[in-house]
Amino acid sequence: MRFGLVHRVMTNALATLGVLAVVNTAGMAPWTAGLVLVGLVIAVALPETFQAKPFMRTVATVAPLLLFVIEVVRVVLGASALDTAVEFAGFLQVIRVATRRGAAHDQQIIILALLHFVAGTVLGGGLSYGLCFLGFLMVAPGALVLSHLRREVEGNYRQGARDRTGLPVDVPRILRSRRVVGRGFLLTTCLLGLPIFIFTGALFILFPRVGLSLLLVNHQRSGRMVGFSDHVDLGDVGTLRSDPTVALRFTLPDNPDPPLRMTIRLRGTAFDTYDGRAWSRSSTERRAVDLLYPNVVPVARVPRPSEDRRISFDLEPIDPPVLFLPPRTVGLELRLPQTAVPQDGVVVTRGPEGELRYASPGTHGIRYDVYLAGDAEPIPQILGSVDRARYLTLPPLPPRVGDLARSYTEGFPTPYAKAKAIEEHLRNDYRYDVTSPSGGKPQPVDHFLFETKRGHCEFFSTAMVMMLREVGIPARNVTGFVGGTYNRFGKYYAVREGDAHSWVEAYLDDPQLGWVTFDPTPTSAARPLQETGGTLVYMRDFVEALSQRWNRYVVGYDLGTQIRLFEEAHRKYDDARTKMGIRGGVAEKLTQAPVMAGFVVVIGVVGYVLWRRQKPRSSKKGDGAPEVKRSRSALLVTELYQSLELAMASQGIHRPVAVPPLRFAEDLVRQSHPLGDKVHRMTLTYLEVRFGGSELDETKKKTFERGVKEVRGYREPAAERDPGKSLTRDASA
Looking at per-residue confidence, does 390 or 153 come out higher? Predict the structure, then answer.
């Protein structure tokens, strides 16, 4: 394997891993990420002959300045400073890879890749970042070693150094050499990543958790969810149905045989005001909720963990940050990360229509446990006269909407029976369609009911709310998620953004009922649509479970997890001592964990000291002269030989670059040049000291210096001048 090719491949690999790490974690715009990746592919593919063209020097100077000006202008115009800095770092790597010339630029590429990994750590550090980091640990040692070697080779060339044959350092020849890098070298440098990984892993586990919010500059949440803001247009919600992005995960304890699909409604928010085209809230006031110890949020009452059923939720970061709750929720408990340094906590606010939101210093979502009341426990819900009027308000609608509602409910005596009648008609007489054209009409509900008779869940729920209000039943529109699909590897249910749904809550006057849920959307559309079988589904579940474990146990590794890990390790160690029969006495004291840890530290220190004492001995060679002394002698004799070449040049004797010193001296002797024997003896002295390990003592040094003076002061007889020059020309040929 050629030295230059392997070095280039490893450097390209580091640059690619660094860019991927920062692109996957920084939340770049798709077009920006695509442009960076395409640019990197082109830069890597550029041949060295193209990169060596003169105009590429201009590109290397002008492109970063132009890019910097563009990013500064974007920041001034309101773009996020953090996002623009990340984009600048990515494009800067592309420019450096495309315009590199030599080892110095390759080292800059490695430094930029390292900075990309630092940025990736700060910005999120998800599973994709972890995979890139493992690749970095494998490639970085080899790339660093080869980059150092190439820098030394190019440095020696610039300083005029020569190789063992006396020739100047030939950089292209060394880069083409297949003897520098072999399979053993690659294997060894890749294995160097193993101790580095072990050391960093141990440091990660043992170092106290101080909290990322002390170091991070929080960036905006990854995406804004349609349907949970304060204003929702009727034509927007249907676009979510095909989005497979995981929005949250939930786990049911004591569920030995979980079904592959579970239809459970997770309520996010509700709306009371409809203007004929969009939903909104008549009130947007939110108040902070006083958390009960430890981090408990009462909803209907204070939860009773020993009696209430529990569901654990792991919510991804979404905007707005709504907490999703299943039916009959009485309270929830936040599971917050613990750190050694106090941080700003999570603030929970209660908004209109029973909505709960959270605000946290981090950007990794939130985990919480929800407590549910038993089926027989009543949850009082009283609706006052003022609120009743809000839930009966109607926008200007065509009269036929009210006529249709009354025709559906005619003959049904109770509010519940009327609501069920409207629900059944909508389910059976209308068709689910995410591409319904009714959303663009002046009266979407009227157009849906009488013209297209097809639409997505928002059309069904809005139509039912309007018809319930037409017949005097208070109702509101609710948005959230419906159900989830089971992940076999992670043992949890995944709820995706495509599972977003809209349904109806109607207030029934019976105090035992209160707000009752109705879903007029056809049953086939009111449940999770994700596939549950097949190879691709298994692969998706595996990757998502791995990502969830990474986020929980690596990104979410906090002080509480750290303490539990140490306690579990200590417990297992004590159990092992008990099984070995170590109880009481000196043996028990000597095998305690702190004592054993001290023994390990002492043994490590003693081993290191012994290794350091043995190291100087192993560096001695031959007659015992240290390497430092030989290096000093080699430097001195090299300077002396260079003075000899200057002296020969003053006599018109020039050694061609392609002719080694010994061969040149032998040619002079063979051609009977008057200075041939002297130059030959001095050349042998130079080679013995420079490459043979011989020491340049004071006698040899003075003899060499005297010979240089004799060569410089030599005066060729007039009769032999022309033949002598002829011999010199022959020797130089």
Answer: 390
**Closest by Cα among 119, 99, 121 to 111:** 119
Residues paired with 487 in a beta bridge: 492
Starting from the edge strand earliest in sequence, which strands make up the sheet with 273-274, in order?
A: 231-233, 278-280, 273-274
- Is residue 124 pLDDT above 60, yes or no? yes
DSSP 8-state assignment for residue 553: I
Residues 649, 511 share a domain: no
Token pair of 32, please? 């920006």
Domain count, the chain: 4
- Closest to 430 (Cα-Cα) out of 447, 449, 444: 449
Q: Which two tokens stand for residue 414?
A: 């109770």
On whether both 63 and 197 belong to a single domain, the answer is yes
Tokens of 724: 């002598």
Going from the C-alpha of 614 to that of each of 618, 622, 628, 727, the distances in angstroms are 7, 17, 17, 55
Residue 549 lies in a domain: no
Report yes or no: 724 and 672 within 8 Å, Cβ to Cβ: no
Residues 531 and 598 in one domain: no
Q: What are the two backbone dihedrals, phi and then psi, of residue 510, each rounded to the nearest 5 degrees?
A: -65, 120
From 175, 207, 239, the end of a domain falls on 207
Task: Give the other-Cβ count within 10 Å of 258's Cβ.
Answer: 15
Q: Is residue 200 located within the same domain as residue 318?
A: no
Q: Is residue 179 part of a domain?
A: yes
Q: Check whether residue 608 and residue 672 sit in a common domain.
A: no
Judge if 635 and 706 occupy the same domain.
Answer: yes
Higher-pLDDT residue of 182 and 113 is 113
Return phi, psi of residue 248, to 5°. -160, 165
Answer yes or no: is 284 within a domain. Answer: yes
3-state SS, residue 270: strand
- 507 and 594 in a single domain? The answer is no
Tell me the mean pLDDT in the region 38-67: 90
pLDDT at 733: 40
Closest CA to 362 of 179, 122, 174: 122
Q: What is the mean pLDDT of residues 673-695?
A: 88
What pLDDT was estimated at residue 336?
Answer: 78
Residue 613 tokens read as 């004492």
To the nearest 10°, the Cα dihedral for 432, 437, 438, 441?
170
Mean pLDDT of all residues in the chain? 81
Backbone angles phi, psi at 423, to 5 degrees: -60, -45
pLDDT for residue 556: 67
Please indicate, yes or no, whether residues 481 and 343 belong to a single structural domain of this protein.
Answer: yes
Q: What's the token pair of residue 617?
A: 């001995």
Of the residues 207, 241, 275, the one at which a domain ends: 207
- pLDDT one-digit tens code per residue, 440-465: 788 899 999 999 898 888 999 999 99
Q: Identify the three-state secondary structure at position 178.
A: coil
Instruction: Tell whether 423 is covered by a domain.
Output: no
Is the CB of residue 401 less than 8 Å from the CB of residue 340?
no
Beta-ladder partners of 451: none
- What are the two backbone dihedrals, phi and then psi, of residue 730, each rounded to the nearest 5 degrees? -65, -40
- Span 611-617, mean pLDDT? 67
User: Among candidates 414, 393, 395, which has minimal Cα distance to 474?
Assistant: 393
> Which domain covers residue 48, as residue numbers?
3-207
Each residue's pLDDT tens digit, 537-557:
888 888 888 888 877 777 666
Cα-Cα-Cα-Cα torsion 599, 600, 604, 605, nearest 10 degrees, comes to -40
- pLDDT score of 623 more than 50: no
Question: For residue 455, which amino acid is it?
Answer: G
